[in-house]
Amino acid sequence: MGHTEGLRHATRYLFARKFRKHGAPAPSITLRTFRIGDIVDIKVNGALHSGMPNRVYHGATGIVWNVSPHAVGILVKRRVNNHIAPKRIYVRTEHVFPSKSKNDFVARCQANLKAHEEAKKAGTKIALP
Questions:
Q1: Domain residues for 127?
Q2: Within this chain, do residues 79 and 120 fall inside the same structural domain, yes or no?
Q3: Can you tell me where the transmembrane regions are (predicted)?
């Protein structure tokens, strides 16, 4: 084929909407609020072209560093040649979802704290996994 290096090249299946899920997103997705410091996942919605990030950021997790009326600024770590570079990108809120990556860590910390308290009451030491 010809010069296939456009902005949205290689996104035929990446940005495609699911079966019977075409059209504009629900208002609840548009009305979500984000605050500075939130951990978010970037998941591009192919139905909305405005505020769409580049395909390399699809599936990336970042931290919100700026909030504007319709978009959020996200700090994403991206591999550039031989080092990890922090990238600051603006993405419309329809392409951003709250991340669940920290839930397991918080649950593990709470379980460890509870185990420590029980061991302290019993007068024993505990070895964490």
A1: 101-129
A2: no
A3: none
**How many domains would you assign to the chain?**
2
Give the pLDDT band (50/70/90) at residue 129: low
pLDDT band at 13 (very low <50, low <70, confident <90, very high): very high
**In terms of DSSP bridges, do strands 39-42 and 96-98 run parallel, antiparallel, or are they unpaired?**
antiparallel
Using alpha carbons, select from 61, 70, 62, 57 the residue that is nearest to residue 36.
62
Cβ–Cβ < 8 Å for 84, 78: yes
For the chain, give the number of residues.
129
Residues 105, 94 share a domain? no
Contacts of 32 by beta carbon, 8 Å cutoff, 6+ apart: 93, 96, 98
End-to-end, the C-alpha distance of the chain in Å comes to 54
> Is there a contact between 54 and 74 (Cβ–Cβ < 8 Å)?
no
Q: Do residue 72 and residue 126 come from a single domain?
A: no
